[in-house]
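We close this part of the discussion by returning to an individual protein. The encoding preserves chain order, so positions in sequence and tokens coincide. The sequence in question and its structure tokens are set out directly beneath this paragraph:

===
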Amino acid sequence: MDIFGFYFSLMELIVMGLLTLTFIHQLFFYFRYLNGVLRLNIKIKSNKLPFLIEQPPVSVIICARDEADNLRKFLPFILDQEYPEFEVIVINDGSTDETDILLRDLSKQYPHLRSTFVPTGANNLSTKKLGLTLGIKAAKHEYLLFTDADCMPEDKVWIARMTRNFTGETDFVLGYGAYFKKKGFVNHLITYDTLFIGLQYMGMAIAKKPYMGVGRNLAYRKEIFFRQKGFASSLHLSSGDDDLMVNKASTPWNTRIEIAPESITWSEPNKTFKTWFIQKERHLSVSSHYKLSSKFQLSIEPITRGIFYVSLIIAFSVGNVITIISAAVLFLTRYFTQFFIFNNSSTHFGGKKYIFSLPVFDIFLPMVSLYILTLGRIGSKGKTVKWK
């Protein structure tokens, strides 16, 4: 064998070695974490997961700024929940629309609706955190359930499904916040991204590695909020009222997730790629403040994913027939694993199907995140954009 032939064979071995190692990690990640919701669903159906029998009083807290239309549309779905004792507290964060008038009118029909407001002239970088703090302090009950003004619970037992998880030492309950299904590429992208993130934080919580939750559907004890001194450690950030609270105070033993279809909340999605990108930028702007262990866990998967695809391209480009066939088998095995887990999980949560878009989004979204976390940090809007 000449020198060139030896080098070429060695390169193929290296490429296939990298492809195989990253393939193994990817399958581990999918079955260990992203498949967690499906595994938990089987456990629940088999009556192997204990739930709280009692239904303790709950305070539902919503912070709203210029959300009169959304409150008019979605708030009744929350106020009409079938639950023995609960209050709904809406914090008016400097709205200039008809929010005050709407809340006054609704409170006549719903006596368990209460409202407060963020004082005029508040100069906090995140007035939402100030508003939530005011709402939490005003709450009558120990169990707090959070959502947004543009969110609608799937069912009238949303509160019951979320709070049934406060057993024993549970401090946090992480729910799933979905986006309404619309036509078009942007909505397809948003729902895929939301599903991936949801399966990841839920799956890692099931694996005793909780790291975040979403404010569209999140519950925790009032006591844990004050024990952590509220949002004191993140007041200098415009975002992070939900994920940073969970990242800071969650433990392997005090966090549970709720996956029942009736527990989902639905939100209005962004309509353009630009508005979604800015939202994505805002969410990622606080990820650098996660615990070191969380950052390490979250960085491994996209790194192995990137190496997998690069190795795959090289194998297809310079490999012999056996190398190409082997690479194709690994790719298809990973693809069908994705297809099964994603689409079955999406069906469980009432979402869309992903077929040909799977590999497209699988490559595109990490590139978007990488850009935001590197070049996008220069003049990033994510640091200054106001919450919505």
